[in-house]
Amino acid sequence: QEKSSRLSAALFGEDCEISHDQLYELLKYAALGECHNATQPSWCRIYHQSHLAGVVVIVLHEMSQLHFYKFYLQFKHLRKVFQHRFTLTPSGNFLASLYGEGANLKPRNTAQGLTSTSSECVPKSSDLQRDPVIRKYGLKKQGLTSYTLTLEEQKKNDYPIKGSPGCKGYIYTECDQQRTDSSPLFGLDCEMCLTAKGNEVTRVSLVDAEGQCLLNELVKPQGTVVNYRTRFSGITEEMLLPVKTRLPDLQTRLKKMLPRDAVLVGHSLNADLQALEMIHPSVIDTSLLFARNGGRRFKLKFLAKAVLGKEIQCEEKLGHDPAEDARAALELAQFFIEQGPAKVAELNLEMLLRTEKLAEVSQNKAALQPQGCKVQKQLNEPPHLSKPCFLDCLQVTGQKPLLLGRQELGSCGLCQSNLSTSNKQILQRALEDVPLSTFSIIQFSLGPEYIASHLLAGLCEKVRSKLTDLLTIYAGPFEESFCLQSVKKEFGRCGPIQSLTVVTETCQPYVCIQYEVLEAAQLAVESLNGAEVAGSCIKVQRPVTAAMLDCDVLIKELELDVENEGVIYVAGLKKSLTETDLQEEFSRLKGLETLFLPKDLQSGKHRNCCFLKFQKSESAVDALEVINGWTMKGSKLRSRNALASGHLWRWIWQTNHSNGKQGGNILHEKMEQLSDSEQDLRKKVKQLDHHIKKLYRSLQNNTLCVVLFPGAN
């Protein structure tokens, strides 16, 4: 819904089916932009990709379109919020293309590590000139003042600026003495917690040019803490309980400690100064100093290892140490100033990062998939991934993909030992970690007891049976000598008929009509019940079965589905009318956006009905009043609100034409087993829907979110 990053695609009618490659294109471009040979998807466009806050793929393990329609009423949030739905063609293994199962990667320098100086890691002199560091700073060494951010650079990178409207109430350090190349450097780093006010500082460290820690202070946030982010901040509730220091106290101390010509150094220092609500005129930002192509930035952990040979932010430690991070940023700035841009460019950091990531991915390929949610290889289909998988691409570009399921991926693609044994645990971890990752795959599962093949067969039969009942109407009673052709013609005006049979078990004849689209059956019930047809006043009703007791509720919910908003169904069209004829006839309707003329998927011939999509719901309501009773080329039209979107219409057709009929005794046994577990299954699905709701509501604006029902294939 955000204007700055919107997905525009034709989602009507036959365009509702996409391939694995098309979905892969979308996710790759959303996550990588122009990097790594990513291009705009061939079937839709993402505008302002750089404004995307992140991409989240929610995988409902081994659930398929079958589950979505069987538990349509239980997926209350999912169907109300996610406006765009597609049928994913069952070919190949989409999850394998994300996780990298079967990928064959051969990194070129896996043994030598980050500090390698082998010939393949040293750039040629001609390449040095193209290095972003050289392009920005030249080849010669310069003093520290050449590397402080200009006012324009500070504005561009969201630094607090004196006099800026967004910095009202911020404290100015008053360090406004002119800087020289001998001005003192100070490393600064903060750790933040998420509170009701937003990000608030909870720990501050300041180190001097010798690396001595001058300040390492805990701070009591003003707002109520929502998330301590302990895994990253190292802060716990117990640590903050005795703390009395507040932000104003710390601002005063910092102001007194800094000399008038102090230069602050930090990695993405803008975030620290914003959290401190302080303005300082002279800064060196190491995330910008060690520039990369396209404005991307290296992580502090990587730079510390690649440039300084130091390990920081180690996994075994609880959270980051701000004094360690401040010292690392300071030493990086000192290295850059003392060694000069040419030496930094010779390190060939981009190649080192690529080598490191490919080595990690290659060594840990087997651990990439969550245990218990492992994607099955297609039977009779060997792996054929000739390109690096999606997660490989992300890691090579320095991004940190998050994979949560029965286990989670660490920052390097290493499978950690802490297991998530339930969907609730996975959700809790997702709520904490998804905001910190640019690309996340969150995998929920119903559990093996609910996806057994015998239960799925019974579930499929129940859905097929219910769809058949929804498409079927009974009409009558008629006179003994009634004209069957007249009945077929009258009911045919409601939409395409699949079959019509005469019921003879009753004392007077009835007819059983099965339609091809839901709207036709509903239109027949609404418009012909109590009408006079073939000389008899008849009753029109659907079959009365246990599964159909919630029919009215289901019809109402389908009508209110966001996919059907502004869409109406029109029946009674003459088959001789072409799409061009219809476009011309309906062009007088205000706000008409799209016309879709369904075709028989076997013969290719169009039906005697169509769907009209309007720009606004109000226009659709007005059109219904105009069309009902409208005569077009001698044929009287009937219309109502749409019930089945394109993918459902196609799925109904495929379900009705499939040959998956079971033997009577076997099927009866399966249906009994399904009935025993269906109530539990319904509760499970409802819980899943609630988890998706909670996760969705926690996402930042401008996040692309995809929910995947991958099925078994």
TrEMBL record:
UniProt protein name: REXO5 exonuclease
One annotated Gene Ontology cellular component of this protein: nucleus
Database matches in InterPro entries: Nucleotide-bd_a/b_plait_sf, RBD_domain_sf, REX1-like_exo, REXO1/3/4-like, Ribonucl_H, RNaseH-like_sf, RNaseH_sf, RRM_dom
Entry GO MF terms: exonuclease activity; RNA binding
Keyword set, alphabetical order: Exonuclease, Hydrolase, Nuclease, RNA-binding
Domain RRM: 471-545, 566-644
UniProt source species: Cochlearius cochlearius
Gene3D superfamilies referenced in this protein's UniProt entry, alphabetically: 3.30.70.330, Ribonuclease H-like superfamily/Ribonuclease H
Pfam family, one: RRM_1
